[in-house]
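We were asked to recover a plausible sequence for a given structure. The inputs and outputs are reproduced exactly as logged, with field labels preserved.

PROBLEM: sequence recovery
POSITIONS: 292
GIVEN STRUCTURE:
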């Protein structure tokens, strides 16, 4: 990974990778080089490519397989959150396989360029046991929002694994305004297509992870304790079909680009659904298929 010093300070990303790269599902930082203009991060080679590429190549994916993937990723996110780290850019292209086996154990969370560590007002890193006494309430609130955004991103991934298409974009040509409007209103379908054969437990988890109100979204630990994850062996083996791979990837790219562009303008990385306006709209709107 190559970064321009003028555009971004890589120190936070490097520090996070050095502290947590020993986790089996976090990408390992091998070395760091720098010159007057650039910083070069030498990372563990990801031979298996993107998680979503592998899934889409299969054409079909079962609930049990999707549950296994989500369990590994949510367990890693729970580990990071419990250590005061929020990723803030958990789009599917940042979840990769270290090898070609396709085993969930070879999954790695990558690209910590937007990640943040919980710090006290004096800048010192905070471990969980010191959090309550030494971190300002507004910092804790910000950390909670960012953690809920990580869960929302995983909810988008879960929806895509189950539905074979994306929740908020119909195709790569959707405008950012259209996508942001759907996100802000919490509109996504859980009927038709694959959803007619997906288990009620899976639908329940999707709704809880994509809840429009960050305060009502599940935590990573709650995702792990949800029946659809904790009782994976009892979930259906039925193979779920996917849309054209390029359409799915294009739709996901459009979704996260719209969000990132919006958040850069707002100087925040919260999904648009976290805004006060979006939440007021959500309370006022009629029930959608996600609430039936």
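RECOVERED SEQUENCE:
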């Amino acid at each position: 990974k190559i970064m321009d010093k003028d555009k971004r300070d890589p120190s936070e990303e490097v520090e996070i990778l050095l502290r947590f790269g020993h986790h089996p599902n976090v990408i390992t930082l091998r070395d760091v080089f720098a010159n007057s203009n650039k910083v070069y991060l030498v990372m563990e080679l990801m031979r298996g490519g993107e998680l979503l590429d592998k899934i889409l190549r299969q054409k079909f994916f079962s609930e049990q397989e999707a549950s296994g993937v989500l369990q590994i990723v949510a367990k890693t996110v729970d580990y990071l959150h419990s250590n005061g780290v929020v990723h803030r850019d958990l789009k599917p292209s940042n979840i990769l396989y270290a090898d070609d086996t396709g085993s969930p154990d070879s999954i790695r969370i990558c690209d910590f360029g937007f990640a943040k560590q919980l710090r006290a007002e004096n800048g010192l890193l905070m471990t969980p046991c010191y959090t309550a006494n030494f971190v300002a309430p507004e910092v804790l609130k910000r950390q909670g929002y960012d953690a809920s955004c990580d869960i929302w991103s995983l909810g988008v991934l879960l929806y895509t694994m189950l539905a074979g298409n994306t929740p908020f974009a119909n195709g790569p040509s959707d405008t950012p305004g259209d996508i942001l409007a759907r996100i802000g209103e919490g509109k996504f379908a859980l009927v038709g297509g694959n959803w007619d054969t997906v288990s009620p437990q899976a639908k329940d988890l999707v709704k809880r992870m994509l809840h429009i109100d960050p305060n009502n979204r599940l935590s990573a630990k709650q995702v792990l304790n949800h029946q659809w994850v904790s009782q994976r062996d009892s979930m259906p083996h039925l193979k779920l079909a996917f849309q054209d791979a390029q359409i799915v990837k294009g739709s996901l790219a459009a979704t996260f680009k719209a969000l990132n562009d919006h958040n850069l303008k707002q100087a925040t990385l919260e999904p648009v659904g976290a805004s006060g306006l979006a939440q007021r709209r959500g309370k006022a709107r009629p029930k959608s298929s996600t609430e039936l």
